[in-house]
Amino acid sequence: MALKIYNTLSREKETFTPLTPDHVGMYVCGPTVYSDVHLGNCRTFISFDIIYRYLTYLGYKVRYVRNITDAGHLEGDRDEGDDKFSKLARLQKVEPMEIVQKYTLGFHHVMDMFNCKPPSIEPTATGHIAEQIEIAKQILANGYAYEVNGTIYFDVEKYNKEQPYGILTNRKMEDLLEGTRELGGQDEKRGRLDFALWIKAKPEHLMQWPSPWGMGFPGWHIECSAMSEKYLGKKFDIHGGGMDLAATHHTNEIAQSQACYHTSPANFWMHTNMLTVNGTRMSKSLGNGFLPGELFTGNHPLLEKAYAPMTVRFFMLQTHYRSTLDFSNEALQASEKGLKRLWDAYETLQKLSSTSEQAADAELDAKVNKLVNEFDEYMNDDFNTAKVLGSMFELVPVINSIKDGLIQADAITAATLILLQQKFKSYLEDVFGLQNNAANNEVLGGVMDLLIEIRKEAKTKRDFATSDKIRNQLAALGINLKDEKGGEMSWDIS
């Protein structure tokens, strides 16, 4: 079965054929690094990590580009409010790039904890100011933008006369206008849906660059158009992100690319669904949102205990990426047990052997082959990880019964057993990116014991430079080292 992907643009599953044979270009909107990455973002990045892994498993050479937004993101999607980076930098009395550095490192740490592969390229908005200015200049030259006092706005109404602006979400202009406020007397924009490609900076603005229109900074949407084109070309295979990006950010990306290059940037648009907590949408205002670090430590009023990163990753795999995912203690605890059961069976499977060329139980042999072949079949159906896991769990009793002697080893052929072993390894480790929680915890515990012993020796020798270095560098990695009474030390993960 050929790989089929649900395309938000067409609102149906389509057979995936890359623009260049054996090569895939994929762009995913990355984090805005002015705060800690939240679980909704993590779900998106874990989902696309699995998609990246599976495309590689199929034999494609994948160029995976995921950006870092470190400039130009205002508080409101419609170019309203303060720049998030400048505002936080003023409050904390630091340089904006200190904010960027802190949260970029934090983001990478969380991705490592979830065992997400790094993208092929991870460009930043601030590193591509020149490219963004060039796109703005071209859109202006093509007649789809206008300048007002050093700010360049995209003319949505003019664009919509030639191309359907709301094509991604299947909404007409009148529907989109209903959700926007009337322009005030001081508003520079011609139309309510117009958005900024380049924004004139006030003298006190901390992040600004020279441009043909004076000192300013890029709009939020133009960065992705610039970076995707630079590293993947004017047309590439897959553009992904959370579903919250479809209505504004991705809609504006399509408009920008069409206005500049006369083509839509991607063949396939993919979007992950939202997270809920106990059936309610996750939000800071409701107090039901928690960060990955709080999940890993259990340090949150809604959590009954700490959950390992692999438990959370496995939990996300049990729901299709386009479906709503509901967090609860019950669901996470069930995932913890389910992952252990599956991993125990996997470790048992690796120890089994058979020399049988003829299956003693032909029906069982056929059943095992059918279930194993379903792994690829379900993943080729829009990356349905939940159904793959369903087939895996059907194989667990078979594996355990062979181990316990309830099923004879020659019941299935040696070829079937080898296929089963290979597919379990390929999927659990390579495609799903799962790891053994117990083994990881044991290794980490051993490393921490060693570091604590070295730090104790340093303190005894009054080598406070080494002692502080160990503590500070662990803190930068999200590991808190605490000095207890009697010279003992404890640690936890923030």
Question: Could you describe the 3D structure shown?
Answer:
This protein has three domains: 254 residues, HUPs (Rossmann fold, 3-Layer(aba) Sandwich); 156 residues, Isoleucyl-tRNA Synthetase, Domain 1 (Orthogonal Bundle); 53 residues, no CATH class. A hairpin with a 2-residue loop joins strand 13 and strand 14. The model has no long low-confidence stretch (mean pLDDT 90). It contains 16 helices and 17 strands. It is an alpha/beta fold.
Q: Count helical runs.
A: 16
CATH architecture classification name of the largest domain: 3-Layer(aba) Sandwich
Label the structural class.
alpha/beta
**Overall CATH class of the largest domain:** Alpha Beta
Name the overall outline: globular
Give the strand content: 15-25%
Number of domains: 3
E-strand count:
17
Largest sheet: 4 strands, parallel
Provide mean pLDDT, rounded. Answer: 90
Helix percentage range: 40-55%
Q: Give unreliable regions as ranges.
A: none
CATH superfamily of the largest domain: HUPs
Radius of gyration: 26 Å
Q: The CATH topology of the largest domain, please?
A: Rossmann fold
Query: For the terminal residues, how far apart are their CA atoms?
Result: 44 Å
Widest beta sheet: strand line-up: 4-3-11-12
Q: Could you list some keywords that capture this structure?
A:
494 residues; 46% helix; four-stranded antiparallel β-sheet; single chain; four-stranded parallel β-sheet; alpha/beta; Rossmann fold; Isoleucyl-tRNA Synthetase, Domain 1; globular
SSE blueprint:
Layout: E1 4-7, E2 12-15, E3 23-28, H1 39-57, E4 61-66, E5 74-76, E6 80-83, H2 84-92, H3 96-113, H4 129-141, E7 145-148, E8 151-154, H5 156-160, H6 173-178, E9 195-200, E10 216-218, H7 222-232, E11 236-242, H8 246-261, E12 266-272, E13 275-277, E14 280-281, H9 292-297, H10 309-317, E15 325-327, H11 329-351, H12 362-379, H13 385-403, H14 414-431, H15 437-460, H16 464-476, E16 479-483, E17 489-493
Parallel strand pairs: 3-4, 3-11, 11-12, 13-15
Antiparallel strand pairs: 1-2, 5-6, 7-8, 8-9, 9-10, 13-14, 16-17
